[in-house]
Amino acid sequence: LGAVENKSSATIRAELSSSNVTTALGYTPYNSTNPSGFLSSISSAQVTAALGFTPPQPNGAGATGTWGISVTGRGYPNRSDGTGINFFWSGQSGQPTWLWGSNDGVNMYVYNPSNFSVNYASSAGSASYASSAGYASSAGNGGVSSVNGMTGAVTLAAGGAAPIEN
């Protein structure tokens, strides 16, 4: 052995620190004044330093990247006033008062079908009934009640031709 210092117990106790004891033990012993080891205060800078990043705030400020979320409640779309909207896959008869639709696939609006213009209807090749027509190449079994502005012959429903006077 080497030289041993001669020290009083009072000197040794004065030189001994909490850190010396914790290091020698390899763990932090129980603290009766703060048994749970709670901090009395901590700053946001200390939290950020301990985490290694700035966490998002409760109002969402500072949130970046991908975060897991927990969603509770209704998973269906809602109206702007918060009322739920239910979609059913069930065929319905008749014409609805309003329809959902979009011109861009993102922003959805309601449309009144009475304002719709069905393009094909204006150029359809046939119609079962019409109160008037600008041009007709033939008439079915119902016949033609009058023809205005035509010269020549009109094919009658029963067949044959009849002259039309000018």
Q: Keywords for this structure?
A:
single chain; 166 residues; little secondary structure; two-stranded antiparallel ribbon; two-stranded antiparallel sheet
Please summarize the sheet with the most strands. Answer: 2 strands, antiparallel
Principal-axis shape equals: rod-shaped
Rg value: 45 Å
Report the mean per-residue pLDDT as an integer: 74
Number of strands: 4
Main-sheet strand order equals 1-2
Specify the number of helices: 3
| End-to-end distance | 144 Å
Which segments are poorly predicted (pLDDT under 50) over 5 or more consecutive residues? none
Summing up helix and strand content along with how strands pair, one would put the structural category as: little secondary structure
- Beta-strand portion reads 5-15%
Question: What percent of the residues sit in helical stretches (DSSP H or I)?
Answer: 10-25%
The helix/strand series, from N terminus to C terminus, equals: HHHEEEE
Can you tell me about this structure?
With 166 residues, the protein is mostly loops. Helices cover 14% and strands 8% of the residues. It has three helices and four strands. A two-stranded antiparallel ribbon has the order 1-2. The termini are far apart. The model has no long low-confidence stretch (mean pLDDT 74).
Detail the topology: elements first, then pairings:
Layout: H1 9-15, H2 18-25, H3 44-51, E1 99-101, E2 109-111, E3 152-155, E4 161-164
Antiparallel strand pairs: 1-2, 3-4
